[in-house]
Amino acid sequence: MKGKKIKNTTNLDRHYVAFAFLMICAVIMLFPFVWMILSSFKTTMDVYQYPPRWIPSVWNGDNYAKVFEMIPFLRYYWNSILTTVVMTALQIGISILAAYSLVHLRWPGQAVMAAIMRSSMFVPMVVTMIPMYLLVSSLGLVDTYAGIILPQITTAFTTFLLMSYFASIPQDMIDAAKLDGCGPFRIMTRVVIPNTKGAIATASMFSFLGNWKSYTWPLIITNDKMYRTLPIGLRYLQQESSMEYQVMMAAAVMTILPVLIVFVFFEKQLVRSITLTGMKS
Amino acid sequence: MKNMKKILCVILSLAMLAGTLSACVSQYVSKETTPAPTQAPPATQPPATGGDATQGETPAPTEEVSIAGTTLDVWYAVSGTSGELFTAQSEKFAKEFDVKLNLSYTGGSGDTATKVAAAQLNDTAPDVALMYAGPLYTGGKDNYDIDALIKTGSGFDINDVFEGMMDYCVYMGQGYCAVPYGISTQVLYYNKDLLKNAGVDMTNPPKTWDEFKTLLKDLKGKVGGNMVFDTSDQAWLFKSMLMQNGCEIIDNKDGEITPIFNNAQAVAVADFWHSLVTDGLMAAGEHGNAESTFLSGNLAFIAASSNRISRWNGTTTFELGAIEMPYFTQPSLALGGNVLVILTRDEAKVRAAWKYLCYLTNVENNTAFALGTGYLPIHKSALEMDSVKKAIEENEMYGVAFKQLDYTWAYTHFEQMGTMDTEIRSMLNKLEKNRGTSEELLTSAVNALQKEIDADK
């Protein structure tokens, strides 16, 4: 009994140490976020002060107003939300179809297609930028939402991410569905997708984040402010070669809002998919 | 607990949303009660015979054709305060001349270059652009309309523009294919408080690099471990130093570009640069942080763009000063910044575009832009203007920057000039980290650049 008590105390001590360690990690992770919020209320002098000033000398809300004065922030916000949501939905839809066909169907040239897709991941976007612009421009899609969205709806990364999860579904389940009379489409919608929700959520979040911060392509393909997105607006807030960090921070605080909401909704699936990654079927 | 976490997240999101909306409201309120942070330049009458006619010095064009109703697509690569002032001046022009301007911000210099290069391939380029390395996209495409327009003498008095600035508008040593606007040069800023506390007297500032180095060593002995000098753009400073020591960087023989920055003068400059690091006066490979270090009060001197004069003035926690850049054998400073180019070849649009460029670069508007942003005025006569004299009185750093205009220069634009800067940056990085001798590294950089020039022929 005495021995058990000692053991429990030791475990408790261990937990305290673990908690303290995790707490320090959490503070480190939260630091940039807190710093961003505090800096958004600082003056230029506060931002560059050394030693660094944590709390603003004066709580200056003008930085937020300045963001709206310098760029059509709400318009950019709406454009970012619209293009990101549509792009993410299309990317995931296409990636699911592509991943399913590459993993669970058999067709001529499948291996070659997979190799081509895989190799496309190693081509930097800057290489394809100008040919892509010429193509989209010749289609008359400059300064349109379609021009921003369509060239970005296929991603090899998302497809291969989903392929690795689809491949983990036991063949027995697929065969059982076939015996029950399911065709390929029903197998995908009734068996594969329901069993890989976590992976799809993870892929969606990666896609969303990537699309939300997409800068170069929307800049290249749009000239009209009506179609510009938030990353372009944030870039405009920079002075050439130097920054008014406090205004940038105010804009950044407002910009991360949708990302935060997406994370709240997908957090459970994301964590589950990561924890299940190492488990065998 | 889980619900609590989600509730907290939702509350935080709502708070941010409320902040966003309240900022919207305050925007509308502030617009009614307070002036915008940057005002348009003082109103000028539409010039009767070209953009600079109000000065009464430019010759009248032989024929005045109305540009009313013309539409111009304009891309610009300046943001922040500069972007606001540029668009304000542009909108004023559009209103005065009944011209429609489709203004579009196109990101930084690299983004804009990519965008313009892509657009030129399928004839979707804008009519006018404010961009870095503009001559590559006009002269490089055999477009010298600006040269012809300048020669007509209508609206742009080239004799009143600093020579070095016009040199900045030339492609491969041929005619003018751009107009200077948003030009800057490097200035040597210093932390007055730090120097005062160290007992360093700046009433007779150092003139040469050797004198400056002696001062730095003296300062270093007094302030201890801190590095005392740095630059935020090492390639820019190094090119100025090369010219100061008699090395002309490139040789242009009838359009044949040969890099020559590995001669004896260049090696001497590189050796001096290396000694700044080995003597503990400048940090190795830390140029990216130089401005932050300086603004936080941990650096005594920094060589940075003159456009920081207006941006930094009144925002530092210490008293800011500036002196003219030191030199080796002769004062000389490389120019940098943006130029205006006319990309359209449509005659009517070229006419409107030229009027627009003349308007933006007339003495009054360009000087207002310069004083509002910290860029340099392009006109010699601007230095006689009351607004400039007043600015110098109020802020001595303007006087320093404007005085340097007498010995600024620019080499001709050529296709591989971006590569040259990259090679120089890389060479300096290796030099500072002792990865070779000055001669070896300079020769390697010159060979790499020459290889690309040969490959592009």
Record the SSE blueprint:
The complex is a heterodimer of chains A (281) and B (457).
Chain A (H helix, E strand, L loop, with lengths): L1 H38 L4 H5 L13 H9 L2 H32 L5 H11 L4 H14 L6 H5 L6 H11 L4 H9 L4 H12 L1 H16 L3 H6 L8 H8 L7 H11 L1 H20 L5
Helix pairs in contact in A: 3-14, 4-8, 4-11, 4-13, 8-11, 9-10, 11-15
Chain B lengths: L1 H32 L37 E6 L3 H18 L2 E6 L3 H13 L6 E5 L2 H4 L6 H7 L11 H5 L11 E6 L1 E6 H6 L11 H15 L5 E3 L2 H11 L5 E4 L2 E4 L4 H15 L11 H6 L5 E5 L2 H5 L7 E4 L9 E2 L1 E7 L4 H14 L2 H11 L12 H9 L1 H9 L3 E2 L7 H16 L5 H18 L2
Parallel strand pairs in B: 1-2, 1-3, 6-9, 11-13
Antiparallel strand pairs in B: 3-12, 4-12, 5-9, 5-10, 7-8
Kindly list the characteristics that best describe this protein.
A: about 280 residues, mainly alpha, 2 domains, B: about 450 residues, D-Maltodextrin-Binding Protein, domain 2, five-stranded mixed beta sheet, 18 helices
Structure in a nutshell:
With 281 residues, chain A is mainly α. Helices cover 74% and strands 0% of the residues of chain A. Chain A has helices spanning 2-39, 44-48, 62-70, 73-104, 110-120, 125-138, 145-149, 156-166, 171-179, 184-195, 197-212, 216-221, 230-237, 245-255, 257-276.
How is this structure best described in words?
The complex is a heterodimer of chains A (281) and B (457). Helices cover 74% and strands 0% of the residues of chain A. Chain A has 2 domains: 2-39; 63-276, MetI-like (MetI-like fold). Chain A has helices at 2-39, 44-48, 62-70, 73-104, 110-120, 125-138, 145-149, 156-166, 171-179, 184-195, 197-212, 216-221, 230-237, 245-255, 257-276. Chain A contains 15 helices and no strands. Chain A is an all-alpha fold and 281 residues long. The longest helix of chain A is centred in the N-terminal third of the chain and has 38 residues, at 2-39. Helix content of chain B is 47%, strand content 13%. Chain B contains 18 helices and 13 strands. With 457 residues, chain B is α/β, with parallel strands linked by helices. In chain B, α2 (80-97) links the parallel β1 (71-76) and β2. Residues 20-62 of chain B have low confidence and may be disordered. In chain B, the strands form 4 sheets. Chain B has a 5-stranded mixed beta sheet with strand order 2-1-3-12-4. In chain B, strands 6-9-5-10 form a 4-stranded mixed beta sheet, with helices on both faces. A two-stranded antiparallel ribbon of chain B has the order 7-8. The radius of gyration of chain B is 24 Å and the shape is globular. Chain B folds into 2 domains: 53-183 and 337-409, 3-Layer(aba) Sandwich (D-Maltodextrin-Binding Protein, domain 2), CATH 3.40.190.10; 186-334 and 415-455, Periplasmic binding protein-like II (D-Maltodextrin-Binding Protein, domain 2). The chains are: A mainly alpha (281), B alpha/beta (457). Chains A and B meet through α2, α3, α6, α12 and α13 of A and α1, α2, β2, α3 and α11 of B.
